[in-house]
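User: Please predict the structure of the protein below. I'd like the answer in structure-token form so I can feed it into my own downstream comparison script.

Assistant: Understood. Taking the following sequence of 291 residues as input:
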Amino acid sequence: MPNKLEKSTDRISYGHVWLIFARNSLIREMTFRTNFIIDCVSSMCWALMNIGFYLVIFQHANSIGSNSGWGQAEFFVFLGTTWIINSLMQAFVMPNAEEFSELIRNGGLDFAILKPIDTQFLISFRKINWAALANVFVGVLLLGVALSTLPWRESHAWQLEWYTLPLYLLYIGCGFVLLYSLMICLASTSIWLGRNQSLYDFWFYITNFSRYPMEIYQTGWGLPLWAVFTFVVPVLVVVNIPARILAQPITPTSTGDWLLAVYTLIASVVAYFLSRFVFRTALVSYRSASS
């Protein structure tokens, strides 16, 4: 069912609406405080077990990838960045994407379309999983510990330039936009398929490639994976670019690294507008649950 109503978005403060969503979600979470605490603790325990696993790995290897520069401290910067971006997705996007097919089935999407607000915004951010943000704090703590050791590394000293943190935060945002756009495109298929129960599994399979430095894919059989997940479905740049900016695994930075950074900015913009196109195209194909 196409959206035939003119939505007076000029008078809508989306920031204010989002704050209302955030407040309602927090009230809902605090209604079951024990469950909230258990979710936070279990997430942090999972993160600590991952740190232990990689500590064992680095007892047997000096770096992730041959001559890649991703030693233990650098990789923990990478790991912390991974947790920050993934936790933001788990908190703000995944709870809504997972319920999208249910909205289609029970007719809730009809009411979302009729509301005087952008439908994609409403569908994407109406619920927040506050417990998922626990790993953001773990990721920031891991970043702090790892960065504190980098100025004394033997290969080349780590230097914090005035632009390092702003660029890092910018590319954290780019990574979030890329993953959000991918998730919206996947969720939109529920309108054509009716139900998409394997959405979360497929999401995990795709994003699993972004959890490791792209250098490990740049040889042998990994080259096709590197090409596909850098230039077709650009999940490899989601974590790699901000982590490289902050950890500086190899200096001086090559021209190729800066070109890849520029490509990431362009890919983020293109991916966002592509997600808007796919979502709106899917809405045109939507038929009301009552029809």
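That's the full token string. The CA atoms of residues 241 and 258 lie 9 Å apart.
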